[in-house]
């Protein structure tokens, strides 16, 4: 199964209201199991704003997410600042970085950590972080699953600011086949929003993060999906100021 197919399947499963709980909460729990991790967290980030925890697994995931916020140096912060995947198959490798984070993570039994940025072009929306109790790299299958969950998390965060409400678990039906159409193809969604963001940034002379915030705010105020707003911007049917 390709990453694209895995991503679509993940989105259908986490929006199945029969499972209970919010989609983001189900995403981190399912990702944790798929990666053989002991903790997983999903963090939203925006330029100039403090990180916001969207979801974290109980125990290790939530504890280290809170620690990351307090100390300000962590796999999450490194991934956000560099907009790159952070792979640390051996946390206790003698490196000086994350001096306020690593000792506590090791005390909790974490031996490897992996952080995946949620990217929309040059914009970093947040980070998905995995903690494992055994040292070593992710297997090819686990890495593929982590990338699929990262893509699903990106689509979830993109759509959560729109009026469609799919990111908050308020989908229109009780079954996974009722998943909002915008999330059936998350890669198409990202391409549309990326193009609209770039156009708006040029038109208004603002940076990409500010342009994306305007698109999401307009979607929310208009009670519309973010993809419909993006398509209208690209087609020049809608001018946001």
UniProtKB/TrEMBL annotation:
This is ANTAR domain-containing protein. GO terms for molecular function: RNA binding. InterPro entries: ANTAR, GAF-like_dom_sf. SUPFAM superfamilies: GAF domain-like. Residues 173-234 form the ANTAR domain. It comes from Subtercola boreus.
